[in-house]
Amino acid sequence: MDTFSKSDPGGWQGRAFGRTEVIDNTLNPDFVRKFVLDYYFEEKQNLRFDVYNVDSKSCSIYKQDFLGQAFVALGEVIGSQRGRLERALTFTICHKTEVVKNTLNPVWQPFTIPVRALCNGDYDRTVKIDVYDWDRDGSHDFIGEFATSYRELSRAQSQFTVYEVLNPRKKCKKKKYVNSGTVTLLSFSVESEFTFVDYIRGGTQLNFTVAIDFTASNGMPSQPTSLHYASPYQLSAYALALKAVGEIIQDYDSDKLFPAYGFGAKLPPDGKISHQFPLNNNEDNPSCAGIEGVLESYLQSLRTVQLYGPTNFAPVINQVAGTAAQVTDGSQYHVLLIITDGVISDMLQTKEAIVTASALPMSIIIVGVGPAEFDAMEELDGDEVRVSSRGRYAERDIVQVTGSCGSRARGGGGAGPGPRCPRALEQPPAGTAGGTGRPRGCVPCRGAGLEGRFPAVPAASSRSSCRSGTTWTTRATRC
Question: Which stretches are tagged as biased composition: Polar residues (predicted)?
């Protein structure tokens, strides 16, 4: 396996990211070299893997036999349920304490280490602690060392543990050598911080639902000034916003079936106003096959319904909340994408719906299109102040509001997904991102955690020592 690259919008013109080592004379190579990529939930990150058979001594990859290539999105890798094998070959520094001067009995401040940095999820991996006598000129004198493991450390959560600090050289030279001092672990605790990746890898399935604004304020779809207008050469502003967000999030939806609704339109044949009509005209099964299926149903609805109003969010939020309430064991998480052009009409009812939904495994992404101001909807985004209704506060911040996405200037002209469109996903689903609370019953990796306490990939989220920290004391006596 040679290189993998990110793609550019214009096609596969990415950069070579890295190259593995060469494994000789085998049809089943196990590569050791690892690569670290920046992972952005809000972006679609395409990877390409090129595989070569190396027969010559040339350093040029182009002189080797090309075997084939594979394409995959990083989101699909994160969303997969497959395990991985990692091996540590050498020790790496994961923490350095502060220097405590002029004492043979230093007491260091509590510190926190992510479990991933400490042992990468391998509870029995050796953790080595080196103790030095600090010198101003940087030539610190090695006092000694001792070894432990995450599993051994975790057993000491309720008691002091004393470790002997040994200097291998002195131990070999001196027959009566005992140790170079001791280190006492005063406290150790673990706090789990479940991340979005933990939930996905733990088996949580994302269910993506779309709701599109069909109110008259968008303009007649047949007119170039309309936000629903699509020319032979350009998608509508709504279609651009849907593709920009949907193509990213669909990688995390295993069945790729997306319920899609419209709101604010009069429906044939009697002209009844609806705020949660299925775009595919199937009340029993509103799901569409992939984002392309949603787009197809959206365009079909534009030809059959009459744009009207008002702009009500509460009905479709309650619709998704009802579905989310059916499964609250952590195996399902729902994301509702609302694409709209203007000011919400049922603010009080929407707040009530959000407060109720905040206890359920769901999140809401509101994407604005067109030139309208969306400041009024910012109060639904509880980043600073939780949404409240009738004296009740939302249990979590479940709403992300982003404006100016897929905008088109009134009067025609080109349209494109605005630069803020991917930012709608910068805040992953609340309750799966850590720090924003967790929906009731939503626990990652039910029954899959080692010792029943951590997610299946604890290295991704747990922190050793927590807020109480791990304090080391040593009696650095010279021997």
Answer: 461-479
Give whole-number Cα distances, 71 to 5, 46, 85, in Å. 10, 7, 21
Residue type, 69: Q
Distance CA 105, CA 107 (A): 7
CATH of domain 204-425: 3.40.50.410
The first and second tokens of residue 442, run together, are 């939503």
The residue whose two tokens read 């909340």 is: 321
Distance CA 260, CA 257 (A): 9
- In one-letter notation, the amino acid at residue 16 is A
Contacts of 135 (CB under 8 A, 6+ apart): 141
According to DSSP, the β-strands at 362-368 and 399-402 are parallel
Question: How would you classify the pairing of strands 113-114 and 462-464?
Answer: antiparallel
Instruction: Give the number of other CB atoms < 10 A from CB of residue 231.
Output: 11
At 265 the three-state DSSP class reads strand
What does the alpha-carbon distance between residue 236 and residue 420 come to, in Å, rounded to a whole number? 17
Q: Among positive and negative, which fits the CA dihedral 378, 384, 388, 393? A: positive
| Residues 241/339, Cβ–Cβ less than 8 Å | yes
Domain range annotation of the chain: 1-79, 88-200+454-479, 204-425
Averaged pLDDT in 10-residue chunks for the chain of 479 residues: 35 72 79 83 81 74 67 76 46 83 89 80 83 89 91 78 90 88 88 76 88 95 93 90 88 90 95 95 95 95 95 96 91 92 90 95 91 80 86 91 59 44 56 42 33 26 35 32
